[in-house]
Amino acid sequence: MRIIFLLLVSLIFVVSCSKVDENAKPDVVVNIKVSKLGYSPSVVEVPYNKVVLFRITAVDEGIGNDYSQEFYGHCFYILPPYDVMVSNIKKGETKEVKIKTIFKGKFIFTCPYCSGVFPTKGDLIVKD
Ligand SMILES: [Cu+2]
To answer: Which of 77, 87, 97, 89 is nearest to 31 (CA)?
Structure first.
């Protein structure tokens, strides 16, 4: 029981570590466009252990442009262990998220809103 608790605590610590200070200067800037045709580029390679700023621009309205709804536009979600979510990106809007690339390997990013309908899925490759 204690081990599970410790694992959980360290997991939360690790996950929170991939998010960085808003004022941290990015080492790398990655511009990604998202539309119903998917992400462009859909394969993104970034260096390990750096601060990476993602700038996500929605080209179209995604799942909708009714901004009174809870969900609209597109999003950008890097699956765990990164578990970084940028939601509700309106058409023409650019949203930013900064992470520290503390995990090496290949990770999926996707738009949970529309990936069931459109090919909004990509690969984030983190390597030395
Ligand atoms: Cu989408």
So the answer is: 97
